[in-house]
Model the fold of this input.
Amino acid sequence: MITSEDVGRPATGCPVAPDFDPLAAEFLADPFPVLARWRERTPVFYAPALDRWVVTRYDDIARILGDPATFSAVEAQEPVFPLCAEAAEILAGLPLVPTMSNCDPPAHQRFRSVMSRAMSPRRIAGLRPAIEQRSTELLDRFAGDLRADLMRQLCYPLPALTIFTLIGFPLADSERIKSWCTDKLEVNWGNPTPEQQVRSARGMVAFAEYCAAFVARRRLEPADDLVTALLADERALTDLEITSLVFALSFAGHETTTNLLGNMLRHLLAEPGAWAEIQADRGLIPGAIEETLRYDSSVPMWRRLVTRDTQIGGVTVAAGSRLVLAFASADREPAKFPEPDHFDVRRANSRRQLSFGRGIHLCLGAGLARLECEIVLNILADRLAGPRLAEGPPVSFSPNLSFRGPVALPVAWDADRRP
Done:
């Protein structure tokens, strides 16, 4: 039996991967072969670069997600790497409390029940006309150019405008809010320099203060938006709790969808015949979205904290150990998804992917993300003739642990086939 000791650090003889570095350029470019080798050889291993155990198999990860008592979510939003003293001091004053993705029962259920009502299927469905209008407006700006960076000109602005409108933020503040969200990405999931840490920590505090001021304003000036709905809920969340929810949602609600859109368009255009298939048969679009989530997840890795000694895949892991759940590995496990390295929009079981999580932390925004993807695919299929990946620099990805999507996506097409 393999046993870990000393709050998650491995005992002699335990599986250790001294060279495993998910922020290395080679891994970021193509993490799947590396993860496959570990999954087949040593599915649970300790990565010194992360000071965490990495779990790679589907069944192990699904069990972890379904057992919040043993595997706490409190680590989900913590910085992956230690911060410098100045940045840590700045963030110590961050006026926020754990809410959804980094909160455990019983408190988690209170937040989730309120958010579930505020983000009801009816409210999400009601966003369709606005998403269609914004998608069309964004496409109108570049459709005649016959070439665009779809990340910068479509995938980046659309989800941000959608979630900021749902929350109620003034759209004039969108660029500033996106910048603050980038600060959070760098601090919590990247490995920035001390100077970057300090700058980004200050940005995170500024954003939290902005969210608090917005909640206070909505208490005095209600509107038809999510913040007003949260304030009106009879279960009476505090302003601090609502501020914390808004701070988290404003990031999660667009970063993952931006990356999902980029990954989806990239693979549909790279896989021979895939774009023609969904263009000819729009009934394949839902499957294309799920297959993207499986094949190249916008959330390739997520984190948990072990609360009591337990076994994972034959390895005994001590209480206090920190885990990285490699969704990107689990969703390419051959036992679960035959021919896993083939992108197949007709795959029958792609919806079993783990990209949106499982159990009590199943992503509340999954319906909105799917809606945005479906609208974008339909509009592009209607408007663009012969879209194809254009020449440009090699595809690159933001150096962080948990969010994956192309930084740029140059695409070219022929003259519009339809107005």
